């Protein structure tokens, strides 16, 4: 069997296993959450099968990676799945950067401009509500051990993830370098715009945004404060990987005046 045929076989096998593992585990969690009393042998058997399939899946991905590198894994794992996993990893790893007071993607000589300040109060409010819900459900479900454990794990992870989302916004600011403006929104959005493609930049605070062809809105706390007009379209990727060309980008910054002034100086140097 040739290399390409073997690769296709592995791709089909791994995707087939994924279609088995995910529904099986979800069905088990739903049954346990509903209070169903499953026989111990059945529970152990199902979990054993799930663990075995996960091990096979991981081993298969490792083999694919060793034979074809990252590109081969990319062919096996659908892009939406890769992006969701990457978002979770980036959000959680941002907690470490936040505690260490470090920023991601800011090199020496770059200028960084934050965009997390205006959403902080709202996210902290969500975190508080999630904590209250976690404590409340833990008390209400204390007499249902299985459901209590599942709910507690999900709720605690939700609180950590919410903090990670805010940490990603803090540690991943907009970055202005000598040749490009990197527009970001936490771990959700990362768009690099070459300076020579920016026709104009203006301060424009907007609180309502209607979907329009060629326009990319990146609001924070439902607002944008800067508008960039481009001479040529750039490809903007969505959360799940969908791409579309945009010629207008609206973004928000904690200090829009400083970002606008720095961007205009950089544009002037680029065109000199």
Overview of this protein structure:
It is built from six helices and eight strands. The protein is an alpha+beta fold. A hairpin with a 3-residue loop joins strand 2 (174-176) and strand 3. Among the domains are: 3-77; 175-271, PH-domain like. The strands form two sheets. A four-stranded antiparallel β-sheet has the order 1-2-3-4, with helices on one face. It has a four-stranded mixed β-sheet with strand order 5-7-8-6, covered by helices on one side. The radius of gyration is 23 Å and the shape is globular. The mean pLDDT is 84.
Largest sheet: 4 strands, antiparallel
Are there runs of 5+ residues with pLDDT below 50, and where?
none
Q: Kindly identify the CATH topology of the domain at 175-271.
A: PH-domain like
Helix content: 55-70%
